[in-house]
Design goal:
alpha/beta, 6-stranded parallel beta sheet, 10 helices, 6 strands, binds ligand V07
Length: 261
């Protein structure tokens, strides 16, 4: 009975579930998104549902970060952007913010070697100057230690807000026009692209948001103009490789017209 229910729910039993390499092989036959962005939501709700402190949700969520980075690398995705800490998150309780600000150095200790072995380049998107010194040091080390790598670009959006990113880009464009570095008639959409944190990277083809919210929350507003949106009720700590592959499979089923008919 349980097996039947499981088969009905997931479509598979243990012995009919496709092997990981078979799924990778099947996915690689279709278009692989060059850039996937993820709003990793639901850590607090996950913890609350289990009567645990919010920090327990964040700790569990870091395991999912590791799993999804590896899945993206295994698929050959060019860029993966993880919305880790928004400019609004500073309003959270002090102890929670202090815990979150230690995650980069934790991740550095546990995952730098694996990321280097996988040829992953780590890049921070956001205002570094507002971070605590110890977090800034961890981010600088991560970026310095992986800057020559040519595999997956792992963008960690930390202290990031899209409107703030766009305002900073506009200020830098105005400064370059005023100093004669650029003529205002040259300013076009590609100019703005070059002044954003994601300069040189393709726009996200797919954005994933976990935990049921259906909104973008000031994330990559410029870059997401033509992105496919994929939402799941599953909270980030429960998100996994299988669901990530499901999102990629759904992306492959969608035809993208970029506004054309
Ligand atoms: C503050 C924060 C929060 C954060 N969360 C997402 C994962 C769930 C836990 C809470 C929120 N994640 N996820 C990855 C990072 C990260 C940042 C920099 C870095 F170099 C390596 C990893 C991260 N940092």
């Amino acid at each position: 009975m349980i097996q039947t229910l499981k088969q009905w729910l997931t479509g598979y039993t243990e012995d009919t579930k496709p092997k990981d390499e078979d799924r990778l092989h099947a996915l690689k036959k279709g278009p692989i998104p060059r850039h996937v962005a993820v709003i990793m939501d639901g850590n607090g709700r996950w913890a609350k549902k289990r009567g645990l402190p919010r920090i327990a949700g964040h700790r569990e969520g870091m395991k999912t970060v590791r799993e999804i980075v590896r899945a993206a690398d295994d698929l050959g995705i060019q860029s993966l952007t993880l919305y880790s800490f928004s400019t609004e998150n500073w309003k959270r309780p002090k102890d929670e913010v202090e815990y979150l600000m230690k995650l980069p150095e934790e991740f550095l200790k546990t995952d730098l070697d694996d990321l280097k072995r996988r040829n992953v380049r780590v890049k921070m998107l956001g205002r570094e100057e507002d971070l605590p010194p110890h977090t800034q040091r961890a981010m600088r080390t991560f970026q310095e230690e992986t800057k020559e790598n040519t595999g997956l670009t792992l963008n960690l959006a930390l202290n990031y807000g899209s409107r703030a990113e766009i305002v900073l880009a506009l200020k830098r464009i105005i400064e370059d026009v005023e100093t004669g570095k650029m003529d205002k008639d040259e300013v076009d959409e590609q100019t703005v692209d070059r002044y954003l944190y994601t300069a040189g990277q393709p726009d996200p083809d797919l954005i994933i948001r976990t935990s049921g919210e259906i909104r973008i929350s000031n994330f990559m507003l410029w870059q997401l103009a033509y992105s496919e949106l994929w939402f799941t009720e599953v909270a980030w700590p429960d998100f996994n490789r299988e669901l990530f592959f499901q999102a990629i499979m759904d992306y492959q089923q969608r035809s993208r017209r970029y506004g054309a008919v």
